[in-house]
Design goal:
45% of the residues lie in helices and 7% in strands. The chain is mainly α and 416 residues long. It folds into 2 domains: 180 residues, no CATH class; 196 residues, Orthogonal Bundle (hpI Integrase, Chain A). Helix 7 packs across helix 10. It is found in: Cytoplasm. Its main location: cytoplasm.
């Protein structure tokens, strides 16, 4: 089975399909002959309009593009049908396909869908709709991704159901589909397993964090030009449990020092634009304020921000302006994790350091929230974290686990 080519370009290279579809479709039809047929051309336009509606967030746009593009490719190439014509049983067939796609549809690395060549956007023949990955630990051990090892996580399956259901709801509103075949699937449980218990939150231990932040401080003392910024990033990610996207500039916002705000009582807050394009205020603790002042002194700025100050919070290492790459933040955090791991091993605590080999940036957010719910009202933590519901914050309260495990401590395998 031949690997399909990408259909939908990146947000920055995608014209508004509501107003500029015809010239874009004409270009695409030379790459995808099916688009010369009216039904498929209309299917493509509706799909683009649906996806483009989520252009307020690049991450959300990419998620919706991934799921709808996979459906388009499968429906067009496997079923020879527009997606608007699919039945419930065919959607089930598609889900099974996603769970076990043919090897030709699976890549072993993330590559761009399109590339620039002589002023044109051309489809990248190396791109695949599905990508096989290896865990961080296995990669460090020398394992390489293999198409035979591809698997679709439960979270990914749930996302597929959710996004495609929204897509068919949109098609119904546009009178392109008479029903929502996703909502007609009565036994989603055969695809999505119900969780019988609450998952443990992935976080680093207090000992590991002590080593990580101490390591960042040592690095900053040894090479301030490179690592004063690293130290502030680590403090901000845990101390205000920010998401990585909330520190970098993107099409929605560019975090600046003026986003640190002092209220009438002299308390400091950080205004961030979070998921769903919602602004929230994060309380800035005294320790975090001291970390901010140290970072600003290094940058030859007054200790505390001024009203409407436009200095980027996280600047680029080279050039002017704010950092725009989340990958750079990940690299900073990973270097601190790796350095802390090495120090712990040198101190004879290799077993205590193991989590740092697999930890990710998001673990810092989890760690900060998990520690704060022990000492602060959970309503306050919820607001600072930007959780949509209290149920999300409750996941970080592990008293239930402590009590449950304590009651099992004295259980005997051979009862008296």
């Amino acid at each position: 089975m031949k690997a399909p080519l990408a259909l939908i370009d990146n947000l920055e290279n995608l014209p508004n399909p509501f107003t500029q579809f015809e010239p874009y479709a004409l270009t695409c039809s030379t790459l995808t002959p099916l688009l010369q047929q009216t039904d498929f051309k209309r299917d493509f336009q509706l799909a683009l309009c649906f996806i483009y509606s989520y252009n307020g967030s690049k991450a959300t746009f990419n998620s919706y593009r991934r799921e709808v593009e996979r459906l388009l490719l499968w429906s067009w190439n496997i079923k020879s049908s527009p997606t608007s014509h699919l039945r419930r049983d065919e959607i089930e067939e598609f889900i099974h396909f996603c769970m076990s796609p043919p090897s030709e549809w699976i890549g072993i690395k993330n590559v761009s869908r399109f590339s620039n060549k002589l002023g044109s956007r051309l489809q990248n023949k190396e791109w695949r709709p599905f990508v096989s990955h290896v865990s961080k630990m296995n990669f460090r051990n020398g394992d390489a991704p293999n198409t035979k090892d591809y698997s679709l996580s439960q979270a990914a399956i749930r996302a597929t159901f959710s996004i495609l259901s929204s897509y068919y709801g949109f098609l119904m509103q546009e009178d392109a589909a008479q029903h929502n075949p996703v909502s007609l699937i009565r036994q989603k449980s055969k695809f999505v397993k119900k969780e019988v218990t609450r998952k443990q939150v992935r976080r680093i231990s207090n000992l590991q964090w002590d080593y990580v932040i101490e390591t960042a401080e040592i690095l900053a003392e040894e090479d301030p030009l490179m690592h004063e910024r690293s130290l502030f990033i680590m403090n901000a990610l845990l101390g205000m449990y920010l998401r990585i996207s909330e520190l970098v500039a993107d099409e929605r916002s560019a975090p600046v020092m003026g986003d640190f705000i002092k209220d009438a009582d002299g308390n400091w807050w950080l205004k961030v634009l979070s998921k769903g394009n919602k602004e929230r205020l994060v309380a800035v603790s005294d320790d975090m304020l001291q970390a901010l002042a140290r970072y600003r002194r290094f940058r030859d700025l007054p200790d505390l921000p001024t009203v409407a100050e436009q200095t980027p919070i996280i600047p680029k290492n080279r050039g002017k302006g704010a950092m725009t790459s989340t990958r750079q933040i990940r690299n900073v955090v990973q270097f601190c994790f790796d350095s802390a791991y090495a120090r712990m091993c040198e101190d004879g605590m290799k077993s205590d350091a193991e989590d740092l080999k697999v930890a990710t940036v998001h673990w810092l957010r989890h760690t900060g929230i998990s520690e704060d719910v022990k000492i602060r009202p959970k309503e306050h933590v919820r607001e600072d974290a930007g959780h949509a519901s209290m149920a999300t914050t409750d996941k970080y309260i592990d008293t239930e686990y402590r009590e449950r495990h304590a009651s099992s401590k004295k259980k005997k395998i051979r009862p008296d």
